[in-house]
């Protein structure tokens, strides 16, 4: 699959700013500093589309990108980068705005075909588990992507994925995708899962 174009559309600070139209949407969510921006850049084969920072809380709005590809099911769609939850080095007043903004987006988007939940390969937090449970409670079945797997030794990979299945209550047969933004590991699997989700939606 080829990526023809990637265009930043807008940063949304309120629900009325969310995109309109018929394009399908894929949303990425994870705790602050999980590596979400790096993964998005890696997935789209861009260097600095999503701003990467060592400081948690860099993403402070719902950022929307329009993607054009050669794939039949995902020829055009919105990739939505959601603010990270958990600790972030930003003012408390700003953090307090994120919860309602995230909830408004995740509860109200009929065009949303897939939520991708990112978790750090080195630690799954209570907030990760709570987010997983909440997403399920509102009707989403998140795709779990495990970031920073290049930091694990080879013999740690299988054990880590098994532990994440158990910690998040994911069935053994459901996909948990190990991903490295440094090496590109997991990129093809993630694209494959997104194409599958788009295909299921078109068949409904």
Concise summary:
By secondary structure, the chain is an alpha/beta fold. Helix content is 34%, strand content 24%. β5 (112-120), α3 and β6 form a beta-alpha-beta unit.
Question: Key features?
Answer:
7 strands, Rossmann fold, seven-stranded mixed beta sheet, 204 residues, alpha/beta, 5 helices
Describe this structure in words.
With 204 residues, the protein is of the alpha/beta class. The chain has five helices and seven strands. It has a seven-stranded mixed sheet, sandwiched between helices. It is globular, with a radius of gyration of 16 Å. Mean pLDDT is 85; it is low at 52-58.
According to CATH, the fold-level topology is Rossmann fold
Query: Main beta sheet, described?
Result: 7 strands, mixed
Q: Structural class of the helix and strand makeup?
A: alpha/beta
Overall residue-averaged pLDDT value: 85
Strand order, sheet with most strands: 1-3-4-2-5-6-7
The total beta strand count reads 7
Distance between the termini: 24 Å
| Second CATH tier, the architecture | 3-Layer(aba) Sandwich
CATH C-level class is Alpha Beta
Secondary-structure element order, N to C: EEHEEHEHEHEH
Range of helix content: 25-40%
The parts where pLDDT drops under 50 for at least 5 residues are 52-58
CATH superfamily: P-loop containing nucleotide triphosphate hydrolases
Q: What is the radius of gyration computed over CA atoms, rounded to a whole number of angstroms?
A: 16 Å
